[in-house]
Amino acid sequence: MLRILFASAAIALAPLPALASPEAEALIAGAAAEITDPVKGEDAFTRSIDVAAVARFALGKHVRTVSAAEQDRFTAALRDFLADTFRDNADKFRDARIEVLGSKDRSPTDSVVETRISQKGEDPMTVRWRVIAREGEWRVVDVEVLGLWLAIEQRAQIGAILDRPRATIDDAIAALTS
Q1: Helix 68-94 and helix 169-177: axis angle, to 10°?
Q2: Angle at Cα 42 formed by Cα 95 and Cα 72, nearest 5°?
Q3: Contact 138/47 with Cβ under 8 angstroms?
Q4: Mean pLDDT to the nearest integer, 134-153
Q5: Deepest of 49, 91, 92, 101, by most Cβ within 10 A of its Cβ?
Q6: What pLDDT is attached to residue 6?
Q7: Burial grade of 155 (CB within 10 A; 0-12, 13-18, 19 or more)
């Protein structure tokens, strides 16, 4: 009897699952539909990402020590880096099927959308997209591929560069453009 009471109390007190954000899922589904298009793909990819937010995040603690102009240059370099990365991998998306599996809200304006990318001749791959709403617009701020969150990885790499003695924002920009 005590076990049943304890189990009932545990179930009653357990948090409810987060409601998936339809807007976050719609952003990813829409981008996924265009990413596979050779003409629209790059634009859809870059349009769905909040590059300025990713750049600020990647700069980490160093964002306070660089000027607005330097932040703008870094953001532009990161935008070019992301576009180049997409172009380098565009052929992988060309015949891929990207399916939204669901999402989990971290807050009313922060969701992680899970997708499955299936390519001919390859095992399906799970990719998670962290999506944030700012001023009513949902944008991607991070992507997890093969267990690595890419913005978090960029932050670690950029931080390591800028932590070096006499390092400048130009060193971080050079790392993105090389």
Answers
A1: 10
A2: 155
A3: no
A4: 93
A5: 49
A6: 29
A7: buried
The rounded percent of the chain whose pLDDT value lies above 70 is 88
Per-residue pLDDT, 103: 94
- The tokens 């990719």 sit on which residue? 127
Sketch the domain layout of the chain as residue ranges.
16-177
In this prediction, residue 59 carries a pLDDT of 97
pLDDT score of 106 more than 70: yes
Fold of 16-177: Nuclear Transport Factor 2; Chain: A, (3.10.450)
- Pairwise CA distance, residues 68 & 78, whole Å: 15
Cβ contact 140:29 at 8 Å: no
Work out whether the CA dihedral 18, 23, 28, 30 comes out positive or negative. Answer: positive
Contact (Cβ atoms closer than 8 angstroms) between residue 41 and residue 90: yes
The separation between the first and the last C-alpha atoms of the chain, rounded to the nearest angstrom, is: 67
Alpha helices in the chain (DSSP H): 2-13, 22-35, 41-47, 51-59, 68-94, 150-162, 169-177
Tallying the residues shown for the chain, one arrives at 178
